[in-house]
Description:
By secondary structure, the protein is of the alpha/beta class.
Amino acid sequence: xxxxxVKNLKVNYGGIEALKGISFDVNDGEIVTLIGxxxxxxxxxxxxxxxxxxxxxGSIVYKGAPLPKTDPQKVVHNGIxxxxxxxxxxxxLTTLENLKVGAxxxxxxxxxxxxxxxxxxxxxxxxxRHWQMAGTLSGGEQQxxxxxxxxxxKPKLIMMDEPSLGLxxxxxxxxxxxxxxxxxxxxxxxxxxxxxNAALKIxxxxxxxxxxxxxxxxxxxxxxxxxxxxxxxxxxxKKE
Length: 240
């Protein structure tokens, strides 16, 4: 079943067309990845879906209905959350307080407690550090917290912006294993990554974004084995 449908999406920033009419779909239960170089428009796409970037053309349809434009709270209420690039944790709040912020639209106290335990089961390190100020956590722990916080809203679709950025290879491996686990438990994932090698290995489908346009699409494995993609984005894979 189609969950999210983006059609001819355009976003302008100060006269610059960041997205030049892109179209893609995310089906219920999938991991879909958008790959591309810096400045390709990947983050802008997620910001537009989240209601954080003004749309100048096209449409975003979620569960068969248009998404509210420029109203991030309603987007979250509808079941879409974002683990943003750069983690964006609240540095002066504890790990536990950050998780509770993720549930700010919810009123079910028992459900919130249960979901905090669920996040701790995914990321035991967060339970160990539940009292610690988030600004003092390591990069990997902050990334775990950003994902955990996004899960606290009980999303149907979780979007992740560069979850592996700046992390050690072992931590990256853990993060991607958790993404697969979250997906296997019923959450649809829209993932943007510069680490195309890791992203395409776990994605059901992928899209290649170049300077605001989608230039290629296919299954994760089709793109992983595509020679053009290999040359442009999988250079790191050859060096391993």
